[in-house]
Design goal:
- Two copies of one chain form a homodimer.
- Chain A is 43% helix and 25% strand.
- By secondary structure, chain A is an alpha/beta fold.
- The first copy, chain A, has three domains: 2-171, MoaB/Mog-like domain (Molybdenum Cofactor Biosythetic Enzyme, Chain A, 3-Layer(aba) Sandwich); 177-254, Alpha-Beta Plaits (2-Layer Sandwich), CATH 3.30.70; 260-422, Alpha-Beta Complex (Maf protein), CATH 3.90.950.
- Chain A has a six-stranded mixed β-sheet, with helices on both faces.
- In chain A, strand 6 (125-127) and strand 7 (136-141) form a beta hairpin.
- Chains A and B meet through helix 1, helix 2, strand 2, helix 6 and helix 7 of A and helix 1, helix 2, strand 2, helix 6 and helix 7 of B.
- Strand 2 of chain A pairs antiparallel with strand 2 of chain B.
Chain lengths: 423, 423
């Protein structure tokens, strides 16, 4: 069976907000055996919303709509649904009570505007929203299902998990099973990898497909398989992943869809080792990537973001003469940053970055995108110079420097483990 | 005239990659007077791509497609276009030369696979891509335009700016002019703000629309206007923004679509004052938000991310007995973090956070979402306790703590300026 997603909102259509809901929903649905055939964004306009709902209900078995359920005048989804299903709104007492309690707990009173949140189409099943004031709605017409959810990402995700997926599973039996596996490489270009993998790719059975997702130095290879027997499919996919990894060799850094920082985090956790960072051009992005992961306090102790040179000098004890003579973006400075952060924060490893993120600040010698990176460990210091170039702007330089520095750390952890084992 | 955007890629459809291209493209088009009627995501499947292109060319004047132009086997956009336009592929010499030079500059050789990047449909205008190997394509049929662009975000953005927008402007005269204005509030709920603004909202002329975009404590109010005379429209919109701000009063923190950190950055730059941060639960996200902005070194000196308690103690000189007796998430600790970061990094202001981002680590006393924040300035220390709750997870707690702490800084800068003026 196929599902279509329709995300409603002028803010999405005019590009003020990036539509992350579609990706989150598609992923949840696919994991549970439901395939999304298309996702569509429309504005807050009744005719367009109605046209998309109508078209979709003719082409697929279920349609999930998000957005337009708020209390304000631009929220028109309920009106469109009532028109389309030839029904009217009624006050839902349990929703009313819940909204009143929710507002009460925040010290707020129920207003006429809030009350509209408890108005629902006659004939709709109510999907209770524990995280906000707009409930989800489930309607059926001629064997097809229409679901309406609030657009607030975490409210939508809660309703998908707790209400929509279980109901879809009861209502439709997933037919084909889908399975995705991801293998990630770093350090090789897309066409070279494609040439390397070609003989194997051409031998793939028709129910397993390969896709390339290159992004900022990393290539995610995605294998998508389908079949009636989930166990058999899982075994087949595992065998293909092994063949792929044998061909791609050292370029592979993960056999799953994890960020580089997650890969490194698992390695540190397994070895009960600790990490600190000293960041100049990455400006806290390394720290943020690490501290986005729950449980990071087990291995991450902190960072010194030494954006200004006097902070490099005063807090990280970088030599004033090296800063003066070699410049902040130099091997000498980045190595001192790593070595001294490791001592100051008392960790097994320290990773440091110093570079020119742009768009300004480049010189003929050190153009925008020039980044020095260093890793300090019990073995000593390892440093590397990269030229990421200016294309893609400041965000891309910061991202690539973070990923590359974390890859250096990954290699250092492996090297240190094997040298320790040898001893 | 209307434009439709079609973003192609299984990775988008299955939720592996969030579709940021649609938002970037819509925004660029709207700024130049072109309205996007809908955005659609389809997978790498010829029939679906063809159906969407065909449907769109019947409904709108121009269709822009992204993705599926890479050198690998899952990239089929050019094949679909050739079928649809009854044409074939030819080798484009300038593209071939450019790709060869680009690869050469990276020390790589031209392969058969790379050569396919220079194959283009006969009859298509080539839009040179300075940032990558796949050129854009421009085709026309029965007065309608089809544009095909690579899916790599910065390559797409470069081609939109340098090729597509100028060509659209020559080809179609933008009819109606569109203008968006954004006013942002913090500290008031959506329905209360809606009640406050209702009399004014009901008096808006039909060509100006209001929309509410609530997200994590902040509400973005978007006014969208259209009309034939851009100057008159700008004046009308300005007058409406003033009325809105008069009603919303102190809740307004920006009259444009800027992040809170950008608002604060401008204030610091104007006053030539400096900032440092000391982060525990926000873990570098404050630093990252600030250092994402070009030119931040003018006012931002750095941060101490003291994730571990011994780093709070050793680097930020937080009292060991306060850490022991009051806990890391306490008024005492966060105030010392702010005060000592201001001294250590020698800045005019320092902002500190300490809280429980979750999902683990909460207690009955201090549940997940509990965050202490402090701002240190020449006037002394200001601190505040917030309960953001666990809903929305770790990322939301980190985001709300960052925004709220930056709002505290904003108010402190204003208070300090006015007290200085009075003296």
């Amino acid at each position: 069976m196929n599902i279509r997603i329709i995300n409603i909102g002028d803010e999405l259509l005019i590009g003020q907000v990036i539509n992350s809901n579609a990706a989150v929903m598609s992923e949840m649905l696919l994991k549970n055996g439901f395939f999304v055939d298309r996702t569509v964004v429309t504005g807050d306009e009744a005719a367009a919303i109605r046209q998309e709902i109508d078209g979709a209900l003719h082409e697929v078995d279920a349609v999930i709509v998000t957005g337009g359920l708020g209390p304000t005048k631009d929220d028109i989804t309920k009106k469109v649904i009532c028109d389309y299903f030839h029904t009217t709104l009624r006050l839902d007492e349990p929703t009313y009570d819940f909204v009143a309690r929710l507002l009460g707990s925040r010290g707020m009173a129920m207003t006429e505007t809030n009350k509209t949140q408890a108005m629902v189409p006659v004939g709709a099943d109510i999907l209770p929203n524990r995280l906000g004031t707009a409930p989800g709605l489930w309607l059926e017409k001629e064997g097809k299902v229409l679901v309406s959810l609030p657009g607030v990402p975490f409210e939508m995700a809660g309703l998908m998990r707790e209400e929509v997926i279980p109901r879809l599973q009861r209502r439709f039996k997933p037919g084909e099973h889908y399975l995705c596996r991801v293998v990630q490489t770093i350090g090789i270009g897309e066409s070279y990898l494609s040439d390397l993998l070609e003989p194997w790719e051409l031998s793939l059975p028709p129910h397993i497909r390969l896709a390339y997702l290159p992004d900022s130095g990393i290539i995610r290879l995605r294998l998508t398989g389908s079949g009636p027997d989930p166990d058999r499919l899982a075994r087949e996919m595992e065998a293909q992943v092994e063949q792929l990894c044998a061909l791609a060799g050292d370029y592979v850094f993960a056999k799953e869809d994890k960020k580089m920082t997650e890969v490194v985090a698992s390695m540190l956790q397994e070895r009960r080792q600790t990490l600190s960072t000293a960041e100049s051009c990455t400006g806290g992005f390394m720290a943020h990537q690490i501290t986005s992961m729950p449980g990071c306090s087990a291995y991450y102790k902190g960072s010194v973001i030494s954006y200004a040179n006097d902070v490099k000098q005063r807090v990280l004890q970088v030599s004033a003469s090296d800063l003066e003579n070699k410049g902040a973006v130099s091997q000498e400075v980045v190595e001192q940053m790593a070595r001294n952060a490791r001592e100051l924060l008392q960790t097994d490893y320290a990773v440091a970055t110093s570079g020119i993120a742009g768009p300004d600040g480049g010189t003929a010698d050190k153009p925008v995108g020039t980044v020095w990176m260093a890793v300090a460990s019990a073995r000593g210091i390892n440093s590397r110079l990269c030229h990421f170039g200016p294309a893609g702007g400041r965000a891309r330089v910061i991202y690539r420097a973070t990923t590359t520095a974390m890859d250096m750390l990954r290699r250092e952890i492996i090297a240190l483990s094997s040298s320790t084992k040898t001893e």
